[in-house]
Amino acid sequence: MKKVVIAGKGLLALKVFNWFIERSNKYEIICFVPVFDDDLCGKHNEDIESLSKKYSIPYIFSGNLEDIPGIANKDFCCDIMQLSFFKKIITKDIINKFSIILNIHLSDLPKYRGSRGINWALKNNEQTQGVTIHKLDEKLDHGPIISQLKYTIHPNFQEVIDVYNQAIDYAFILFSHTLPDIEHIVPIEQDHSKATYYDSKDFYKLGDRLTFTKKESLKLDKIYE
């Protein structure tokens, strides 16, 4: 049986959590480590907490990986950590405690590393966007690719929220088709020469793509004036 830690927030994290729970004959969930940083994910995080209580799975209220039960012990080892919107830096010491750490990123890496890849893709009038599962390393969105898919987007009429919802659906499909074969997949290094990166300090450049809708973005955009 594989030991698993799940960390993150929101609907995708809830779907991933449920997927592992439904396969309790193959996976033992050590704990869930939540992220609390926005209102959007609040209801889903509450659902995750309720599931944790129902199935007696430790829920790490601090949100710190250092508080995973037993992780400070020298002989601690775990097969998989699955991340879904876990935005914190993970140290090499913690990375080394796991056989593999998988991150789900809502872009076709190496394009759109960093924050709000969907917002930037629409701002840049891209015709496709992607989702990627990659092996975590010490650099942001840098690790080798485990699996990936692309899908069509329509900047002329789609809002960020529309593409975000698509991305969540596609990400879970990719996840559910990837995890059963994870032991057989050979990760492929990203072509770092094609990488693009967007930082939170550049959000002011997003204009009407700053948040989920153009209407709300134009209101928030005044903050950056």
Please give the structural blueprint.
Layout: E1 2-8, H1 10-21, E2 27-34, H2 42-54, E3 78-84, H3 92-95, E4 98-105, E5 113-114, H4 117-123, E6 128-135, E7 145-152, H5 160-178, E8 197-198, H6 214-220
Helix pairs in contact: 1-2, 1-5
Domain module tally: 1
Query: Quick one: overall form?
Result: globular
Give the helix proportion (percent range): 25-40%
Strand residue percentage: 15-25%
Q: Please give the radius of gyration in angstroms.
A: 18 Å
What CATH architecture label applies? 3-Layer(aba) Sandwich
Q: Give the topology string: H per helix, E per strand.
A: EHEHEHEEHEEHEH
Q: State the assembly state of the protein chains.
A: single chain
Give the helix/strand class.
Answer: alpha/beta
- Per DSSP E runs of 2 or more residues, the count of β-strands stands at 8
Uncertain residue segments: none
**CATH fold name:** Rossmann fold
Identify the CATH class.
Alpha Beta
Number of helices: 6
Q: Strand arrangement, largest sheet?
A: 2-1-3-4-6-7
Nearest-integer average pLDDT: 94
Largest beta sheet, briefly? 6 strands, mixed
Ends: how far apart?
A: 54 Å
